[in-house]
Here is the input.
Amino acid sequence: MSHWSEHTAMVVEDSGVQRAHLVDLLRSMEFGAVLEACDGNDALRVLALHGNKPVGLVLTDIDMPGMDGIELIRCLAERRLTDNLIVTSARDPRLLEIVESMASDDARLHLLGTLIKPVRLPDLEQLMLRAGRPAVAAVPLKPSQNLQQIEQALHAGQFLPYFQPKVAMDSGAVKGAEVLARWRHPEHGMIPPDQFIPVLEGTPLMAPFTLAMVEQALGQSEAWRRAMPGFTLSLNLSADNLADSDFLNRLAEVVSAHGLPPQAIIWEVTETMVMSNLSQSLGNLARLRLKGFGLAMDDYGIGFSSMQQLSRCPFTELKVDRVFVDGAALRPNRRVILESAIEMGHKLNITLVAEGVESVADWQLLRTLGCDLAQGYLVARPMPGADMLNWIKTNRMRLKALAGALPAE
Ligand code: C2E
Ligand code: CA
Ligand code: CA
Here is the structure.
């Protein structure tokens, strides 16, 4: 085990007692250093302080307040922050099954295995035997993790909105677009939001950043919004944004200053964000809804909220996470989750949106299941605002055919 002595491990666990136990186990395996975090957001913060270099092992719980383990694993994979992963859970073994099925689809997730809590040393050692040779060369440090650089970029106007269309599955009509932030870096090119949103979260820059995105998105979309009555713009809010009622009032003023009715805007908040702080979120969500804005529950399915919890929130739209959408046509497990989400959404009178639709087979399955809207690479990748009108013109027939409103040939 001595080859771990040059490597760092991390324990992500909300229970202090369990965390201390796991840290002891890893120390006894002679890891060079053991980092600790109490939930997914905390883990990303600690890893950022560590320079966002990949660590040798992350041992994470699934069920945590704040950012849960499933969301964390996705971030770890996307940003390649760990060489090996072990997931623990005290709950339903089906949670561990979902993690295993996520890992079998994603080559970037080096899942060594799952363990039921409390974890015992021999089981942990057994799993560690499967660990690949830890990567020694660290991924070069991206500039994006540095808050100071982000602040300069914000002042320099380097953050801009991209737009990804949402289309009606029964007609192929474009119903709206989600606004997705990009950082146009003068040297490093286009940097995706996963590289800077987590750094902004919890800092005073999150509010001005969101405001800058909203202002630009409203301005850039004016031409095509006017051309399509009923077109909606979906804008992502962070946990900080949702907790700040003064800031939300400010956003409402910005929208009305652009001469837009609140119905033209859908605020997106993630399921985990809402459920981790239900009582406070509920008040602010209700206020936005009362003003007439649309509200979307984003990344639905990864936070395991129940229908009862969902029915208490005034959402107008449910966005099923792409983990459950991508490849659903081939996997009965995902199909079951989609079916129940769509059924539940419709019972609650909520518009169902499937995220990450990449294949025609998945599109057809979702259509059969009665899903309302689709967003994903099959429809379009996120694009600059200036490309949108032309995209709509050149893709109208293709989308109609996809919806089955015209014969495919
Ligand atoms: P999200 O809100 O879940 O946005 C959907 C993400 O899925 C986008 O990634 C989009 O490009 C990607 N996507 C869409 N269709 C497909 C597909 O068919 N296949 C695959 N593999 N991916 C697809 P993106 O743009 O990298 O954004 C990542 C996340 O960053 C967003 O996830 C959102 O949580 C956050 N984000 C982006 N812009 C903002 C913003 O302005 N404010 C805040 N607070 N968060 C933002
Ligand atoms: Ca979103
Ligand atoms: Ca999403």
Q: What stands out?
A: Residues 134-144 have pLDDT under 50 and may be disordered. Residues 332-347 form the longest helix (16 residues). Residues 176 and 231 are 5 Å apart (CA to CA).
